Amino acid sequence: MKLLIKNGHVIRWSTQQRVEQLENHHVLIEDNHVLNVTPTLPADFQPDETIDATNCAVIPGLINTHHHLYQSLTRCLKPVQNAKLFDWLLGLYEVWGRIDYEAVKLGSQISMAEMLLSGCTTTNDMFYVYPRESDVKAEAVIEGAAELGMRLHAGRGSMSLGRSQGGLPPDSVVQDEPAIVKDCERVIATFHDAKPYAMTRVDLMPCSPFSITFDLLKETRALAKQHQVLCHTHVAETEDENKFCLEKFGKRPADYMVAANWIGPDVSWAHCVCLNSEEIKLLADTKTAVAHCPSSNMLLGSGIPPVCEMLKANATVGLGVDGSSSNNGAHVLAEARQALLLQRVKNGADSFTTEDALRIATLGGARLLNRERELGNIAPGSAADIAIYDLNTIEFAGASAQDPLGALILCHSPRAKFVLVNGKLVVKYGQLATVYLQALVTKMNDLVKKKFR
Ligand SMILES: [Zn+2]
Questions:
Q1: H-helix segments, 15-100
Q2: pTM for the predicted model, two decimal places
């Protein structure tokens, strides 16, 4: 199967990893990967399908490095709209205790649909709520992604430290540790695909220092090393978390992670709002990556993460929208804009550029997922994960004539016109091509009214 993206404004990374804007270029695709990007069409390339990208920006599919896909079930939940992290969690655990397989699949599909329409092609997901009375399994998310055609890093999450043991979540939503370890092994054995261009990988994602035990943290790390899968967790999201860790463990969250061997190029930490300069240096030295979630940090009043300092130290930073209960949106291009705006609030107008925003939304995410060779760029051998935006719209009027990259990041973020994942068109003319979205939306609103208010 050969596919041609014809005559687009291609924005991609050079071999020196600087942004390149290539006017009137063509992207040649064969099956699931890119063959070439060229200003002239080779006579021997006969496409089976052609997408006309005239007046369009063609960019690498965006990568979301932190999400809890099921949380669209509790998006905008009224009692916690104005709560900070720990109060917000305490208000939500009880409602999340009502989830089942079908609800998680539907909630996950809603989140993924929103991301695909924004131009995101790969998502990380930390699914960590397994209520004792529920039939829910990791498959709910994995099935949902396969039906939509989204590339997924499915995180087998976990919580084991219930309130009776000094943790934050109620005992009804935490699991016994042997059951968690057994299910992690089952999910890896059943679904993890280590091959290049894999559509499903399984990573291990225990939730946070305040909801799992130190023993489970260490055991999960050893399990991940044994199976060569990635590790991801929340670290230093708020000052409350720093205080909790200092009181309970006598350590700041970052030191607690180091003690559990949760550092290295196969490890990423979400948030990292409250890190000091020594901890930032540790991230860079150990190649431990960060998933930066600006909207969530703003909504919960968690603070401004030191992203400029992280980038200056050469740490790997990816972008995340976080769960829909703490963002209320899953528009990854809009999140890149948010990242730029938030850093500029703290560090000034010249501190964070449109190139920086695109970098964390593409290359940074690919590096965090240990998939730099295949994701995050449009170059020979890249996966055919591509987002195409119409530049001839009201959102971009005037701006796209100045600077298409500037328009994408600085103007109001639009839906993508076309999105390809692994060479397959999953968004066509701004609509999902794989499922009937309106039916999902109606089902979602009915379910939330019935069960999740
Ligand atoms: Zn999170």
A1: 85-96
A2: 0.98
